[in-house]
Amino acid sequence: MEIIITPDYEAMSRTSAEIIAREVKRKHDLVLGLATGDTPIGTYKKLARMYKEEGLDFSKVTTFNLDEYLGLAPLHENSYNYFMWENFFKHVNVSAHRLFVPQGNTDDPEEFSEWYEKKIQEAGGIDLQVLGIGRDGHIGFNEPGSSFASRTRVKALYEQTIKDNARFFEREEDVPRFAITMGVGTIMDARKILLIASGKGKADVCREFIEGPVTSQITATALQLHNYAIVVLDEEAAGGLERRQYYNWVRDNKHVVEKRIGR
Ligand code: F6R
Asked: Is 145 left (phi over 0), alpha (psi -120 to 50) or beta?
């Protein structure tokens, strides 16, 4: 894993947007996996600015979102589909028929999940998957104990996740108890992975998933087994890392490192 520590949320957002933009420029029909939540909002804003000011072109990009609350219709204002339109899609030149978000109000989640996996395959697989991380270590909604082999399916949300996400709802009781989420296996199939994290509240889990043992109890630790995972953190989220000096040396000597490892 490549660990990039940035000073603050603003810099984390800029760095992650630059990484995504680099991939979009490299491959105009990129297949991009996307996340919702507070963390990527700044990244999406930066990408929207790159589209407006520099003409970064999303017209051929296909996107697949990680997850959606089960039971919420796409236009529900707490749905992740709504979030994506408000925070990203409507601000750039994406093509609506290339945007995929799990359908929360499907009658048959199992059949839908199989269809979603098939769509990802048909698109040629995910080139770059963007992830946030929950305080319980989840990626997507792969809560503690999710198999590293799991595929898109329904998952019951962990108590901590329900509490953390209650801020978006009027009352905690309104937070759906289930979600459709890509599995850890689906995420791990992406050619490249970019995980972003910000704030003190994520410091413990960032130390655990970057420097701790691999365990399905912290599903983000699966990234240690991926051959191209980049983690962009702000100072607060990086607060617990023991090997930060090493990560910073690699970051500051990127040209030397890249020459050596041939990226
Ligand atoms: C959202 C998702 C979740 C979030 C995580 C962090 O699509 O898959 O794993 O990335 O819950 O959320 P924030 O960024 O709000 O702290």
From this structure: left
138 as an active site residue: the answer is yes
Cα 31 to Cα 23: distance, rounded to the nearest angstrom: 10
Q: Atom 8 (ligand 1): residue with closest C-alpha?
A: 140
Q: What angle, 0 to 180 degrees and rounded to 10, lies between the N-to-C axes of helices 80-87 and 41-54?
A: 40
Each residue of 3-27: pLDDT tens digit? 999 999 999 999 999 999 999 999 9
pLDDT in tens, 121-167: 999 999 999 999 999 999 999 999 999 999 999 999 999 999 999 99
d(CA 209, CA 193): 14
CATH of domain 2-260: 3.40.50.1360
What are the boundaries of each domain within the chain? 2-260
Q: Which of 117, 136, 235, 236 is catalytic?
A: 136
Q: How confident is the model at residue 39 (pLDDT cuts 50, 70, 90)?
A: very high
Q: pTM for the complete prediction?
A: 0.96
Does 202 contact ligand 1 (Cβ within 6 A)? no
Q: Is the CB of 134 under 6 A from ligand 1?
A: yes
258 is catalytic: no
Using CA atoms, how far apart are residues 3 and 206, in angstroms rounded to an integer? 11
